[in-house]
Design a protein that fits this description.
Aminopeptidase; alpha+beta; disordered C terminus; 4-stranded antiparallel β-sheet; about 25% helix; single chain
Length: about 100
């Protein structure tokens, strides 16, 4: 039995992303672009396609930087490329997490 199948069926699993997750990641990203961006700026945001997200994942992997997803019952709920960014405290870093909207998509 692998580690993923040992978890409680209702538990949220955080794991490395896979190419098979790209469609769900793209749906999450597009949801937030359509629903979460100030309408005055919608035309200014370039939306990626599946191949672009795959390239980003591969680039992260080559640099040994984590790119994770959170899933529940096999459904990807959110994803995050974990990138060190400068913060106000020199010894800390921050990351952004993209997740599904309250309507589930």
């Amino acid at each position: 039995m692998d580690s993923e199948s040992r978890h409680d069926a209702d538990a949220i699993l955080v794991r490395n992303s896979r190419d098979a997750d790209v469609a769900a990641m793209l749906a999450i990203y597009l949801h937030h672009i359509r629903k979460g961006v100030d309408p005055r700026h919608q035309g200014e945001i370039e939306t990626p396609d599946a191949d672009d997200l795959k390239r980003r994942r591969k680039s992260m992997q080559r640099r040994r930087m984590p790119h994770i997803v959170a899933e529940e019952r096999g459904v990807v709920l959110g994803y995050a490329p974990l990138i060190d960014t400068p913060s106000s405290t020199p010894s800390t870093s921050t990351t952004s997490i993209c997740g599904a909207g309250s309507d589930g998509g």
